[in-house]
Amino acid sequence: MSESIFVTVPEHVAIIMDGNGRWAKQRGLPRTMGHRKGVEAVRGTVRAAGAAGIKYLTLFAFSSENWRRPEAEVSDLLGLLKAFIRRDLAELHRQNVRIKVIGDRHSLRSDILGLLLEAEETTKDNTSLTLVIAFNYGSRDEIARAVVSLARDVEDGRLRAQDITPALINARLDTAGIPDPDLIIRTSGEERLSNFLLWQAAYSEFIFLPEYWPDFSPEIFRSALETFASRDRRFGGLSSQAAAVGT
C-alpha cells in the first residue's frame, strides 16, 4: 500500500455499488454479466483505496431487501460472493487487508456464512485497509437488533434505561469499533441511501456519481476523493474560514 497523494484523505469511505443491471441492459446483456463486471470494479477499488491511504472501505454488497429479487439473480449474486472470497481472499491477505462483515448472520445459509467467517478469521490480524462487506445488511434492521440487545439488558437488570446513550447504541451496532464513514459514494445517478448506514452517516459527506458501478474506475475514485478533500466539514460548528475570521 503506497502513501496517499491527497492532502485530506477520508479515513472511512463507504460505497453503494449501484447500476450493474442497467449497465448490462444498455449493452443488451443479461443482468448477471453486469454483476460479474461489477466484481472487477470491486477489485480495482480495493487496490485504489489502499493506495490512497484509506483505512476503512465499506461496500454495500447485498442488502436485506435483495432477497426479493428473482431467485436466479439472487443465486448468481451469492455465487459471485463465494467466487470472490475463494479467488481473492489469499491475495487480500497478502496485501495485509482485514475483512469485516456486517449484516444479519442468523438466517444465512451455512455455506455462505462459513465463507464469511473464514474470511474474517484468516485476516483478523491484518493492519492495513479494513474491507467491510455489508452482506444481508439493512440499517433499520441493524438499529432494531441493537435496540433489542439493549432492551434485554434493561429487562435483566444489567442496564438502566436512563443510562442508554448514543455511544452505547453505537457500541451495539454491527459497525462497533469502526469509525463512521467520512464519505459515502453512490454510483448510477441515484441520490438516496437505500437503508445503508443510516445511523453512521450523520456527518458523512455524499457524492453521487452518474457512472454505473461496472464503470467505476480508480480514476473516478481518485476524482471523488479530490472532491471530498475540497469540502469544508463543519460537524455542526463553524466552517474553518468563518472560524478564522472570528479569531
UniProtKB/TrEMBL annotation:
<dbReference type="InterPro" id="IPR036424">
    <property type="entry name" value="UPP_synth-like_sf"/>
</dbReference>
<feature type="binding site">
    <location>
        <position position="18"/>
    </location>
    <ligand>
        <name>Mg(2+)</name>
    </ligand>
</feature>
<protein>
    <recommendedName>
        <fullName>Isoprenyl transferase</fullName>
        <ecNumber>2.5.1.-</ecNumber>
    </recommendedName>
</protein>
<feature type="binding site">
    <location>
        <position position="31"/>
    </location>
    <ligand>
        <name>substrate</name>
    </ligand>
</feature>
<comment type="subunit">
    <text>Homodimer.</text>
</comment>
<dbReference type="InterPro" id="IPR018520">
    <property type="entry name" value="UPP_synth-like_CS"/>
</dbReference>
<feature type="active site">
    <location>
        <position position="18"/>
    </location>
</feature>
<feature type="binding site">
    <location>
        <position position="69"/>
    </location>
    <ligand>
        <name>substrate</name>
    </ligand>
</feature>
<feature type="active site" description="Proton acceptor">
    <location>
        <position position="66"/>
    </location>
</feature>
<feature type="binding site">
    <location>
        <begin position="63"/>
        <end position="65"/>
    </location>
    <ligand>
        <name>substrate</name>
    </ligand>
</feature>
<dbReference type="Pfam" id="PF01255">
    <property type="entry name" value="Prenyltransf"/>
</dbReference>
<feature type="binding site">
    <location>
        <position position="186"/>
    </location>
    <ligand>
        <name>substrate</name>
    </ligand>
</feature>
<feature type="binding site">
    <location>
        <begin position="19"/>
        <end position="22"/>
    </location>
    <ligand>
        <name>substrate</name>
    </ligand>
</feature>
<dbReference type="GO" id="GO:0016740">
    <property type="term" value="F:transferase activity"/>
</dbReference>
<feature type="binding site">
    <location>
        <position position="35"/>
    </location>
    <ligand>
        <name>substrate</name>
    </ligand>
</feature>
<feature type="binding site">
    <location>
        <position position="205"/>
    </location>
    <ligand>
        <name>Mg(2+)</name>
    </ligand>
</feature>
<comment type="function">
    <text>Catalyzes the condensation of isopentenyl diphosphate (IPP) with allylic pyrophosphates generating different type of terpenoids.</text>
</comment>
<keyword id="KW-0808">Transferase</keyword>
<keyword id="KW-0460">Magnesium</keyword>
<feature type="binding site">
    <location>
        <position position="23"/>
    </location>
    <ligand>
        <name>substrate</name>
    </ligand>
</feature>
<keyword id="KW-0479">Metal-binding</keyword>
<feature type="binding site">
    <location>
        <position position="67"/>
    </location>
    <ligand>
        <name>substrate</name>
    </ligand>
</feature>
<feature type="binding site">
    <location>
        <begin position="192"/>
        <end position="194"/>
    </location>
    <ligand>
        <name>substrate</name>
    </ligand>
</feature>
<comment type="similarity">
    <text>Belongs to the UPP synthase family.</text>
</comment>
<dbReference type="InterPro" id="IPR001441">
    <property type="entry name" value="UPP_synth-like"/>
</dbReference>
